[in-house]
């Protein structure tokens, strides 16, 4: 993925704030050379903006004082200004994005399935990310357990029914080189799964569904999965007794 928020869009979820297709957002703070180094990690200005947005959202949820409400609204506007300064979205577009985020601010949860067949891993083609490839998955939904979420996402995106065998890893998305960066904090949960039924089929979000060897991966959708994470999934497939990784 380039240094643009190329397809800053939602993946399936009931969360109303992700029902829109994300606009294309071009970062202005990093060159391609910088992105080859530590700049793949989340820039400080995004961390500051997310922290301010969380303070604003949580404060508005708890405060009863009208003057404090004004202060928390202002903090949210500052967060939107920071994000707008470094992208091609306007301040009011970020405020529209954040307006449905209410209550105590917590990380969103993304789930991904690692499914193997004949020593190859299942990947799906993301139509909205220039047909780059990823593990099947997406946002966890309300009123679903983690295993229910990944079974649903896998079936929706690949057509396969799966049984969940173990949690491979729980990662903070900001610490693992994903681009584009999001204005929300995200945890990623990787599951080792086995196919129990169904058949490969495309969806409104995915094109081809194929199995790939570890040394023959296609171009990945780095907003969703990285080469290092695919390698981790292969390692846990070969050694299922490995402990769950985290952070």
What's this, in brief?
The chain is α+β, with helices and mostly antiparallel strands and 247 residues long.
Structure explained in plain terms:
The chain is of the alpha+beta class and 247 residues long. It has two domains: 4-98, no CATH class; 108-246, Nucleoside Triphosphate Pyrophosphohydrolase (Alpha-Beta Complex), CATH 3.90.79. The chain has helices at 32-35, 44-62, 66-85, 91-98, 146-158, 227-238; strands spanning 4-5, 25-26, 108-117, 120-126, 132-134, 137-139, 160-172, 186-198, 206-212, 245-246. Strands 3, 4, 5, 6, 7, 8, 9 and 10 form an eight-stranded mixed beta sheet that branches. Strands 1-2 form a two-stranded antiparallel ribbon. Helix 2 (44-62) packs antiparallel against helix 3 and helix 3 packs across helix 4 (91-98). The radius of gyration is 19 Å and the shape is elongated. The chain starts with a strand and ends with a strand. Mean pLDDT is 86; it is low at 1-39.
